[in-house]
Amino acid sequence: MSEPSSVLVVDDSLGICQTMSMILRRKGFEVTCAADGPRAIEKVRERPFDAVLLDIRLPGMDGVEVHKRIRALRPGARVAMMTAYAVEDRVRDALSAGADTVFYKPLDMDAVIDYLRKGAPAR
């Protein structure tokens, strides 16, 4: 990676955001966090990100709706969903709406880093 890739991590868990930021920064990524959908959308409006890691369950506006709004703002955005819950209907909705993939928590950070460096894995 010649220059840092920018990543937006969207999760209402401060611990997950902090941990992911620490790991991804050590791997050379530039990381921004948002704790909810409206903040994530605001950050995407302000600048493009190389990738967005987006929790499906967020307060106020779920991740699938946030994903749709991000795609409307940045049609070429790379977005991967994250979930710790058995929400298969929402996972299907996210993939149907164009999400690249879904990562299940606890996250396999090697797989996340692979996604960020190489692109979307097969669904």
List the helices and strands and how they pair.
Elements: E1 6-10, H1 14-26, E2 30-34, H2 37-46, E3 51-55, H3 63-73, E4 79-83, H4 88-96, E5 101-104, H5 109-118
Parallel strand pairs: 1-2, 1-3, 3-4, 4-5
What's the CATH architecture?
Answer: 3-Layer(aba) Sandwich
CATH class type: Alpha Beta
Helix and strand sequence: EHEHEHEHEH
Q: What structural class do helix, strand and pairing data support?
A: alpha/beta
The biggest sheet, with number of strands, parallel, antiparallel or mixed sense and barrel status, is: 5 strands, parallel
Examine the coordinates and then state which fold CATH places here, giving the name of the CATH topology: Rossmann fold
How much helicity do the residues have?
A: 40-55%
Number of domains: 1
> Tally of extended strands?
5
Strand percentage lies at: 15-25%
- The total count of helices amounts to 5
**Mean pLDDT score:** 91
Strand order of the largest sheet: 2-1-3-4-5
Radius of gyration: 13 Å
Gap from first CA to last CA:
24 Å
User: Looking at the structure, what is the overall shape?
Assistant: globular
Low-pLDDT ranges: none
Name given to the CATH homologous superfamily: Response regulator
Task: Note down, in words, how this protein is organized.
The longest helix is centred in the N-terminal third of the chain and has 13 residues, at 14-26. The chain has a 5-stranded parallel β-sheet, with helices on both faces. It has one domain: Response regulator (Rossmann fold, 3-Layer(aba) Sandwich), CATH 3.40.50. Helix 3 links the parallel strand 3 (51-55) and strand 4. The mean pLDDT is 91. By secondary structure, it is α/β, with parallel strands linked by helices. The protein is built from 5 helices and 5 strands. Helix 2 (37-46) runs parallel beside helix 3 and helix 3 (63-73) packs parallel to helix 4. It has helices at 14-26, 37-46, 63-73, 88-96, 109-118, and strands spanning 6-10, 30-34, 51-55, 79-83, 101-104. The radius of gyration is 13 Å and the shape is globular.
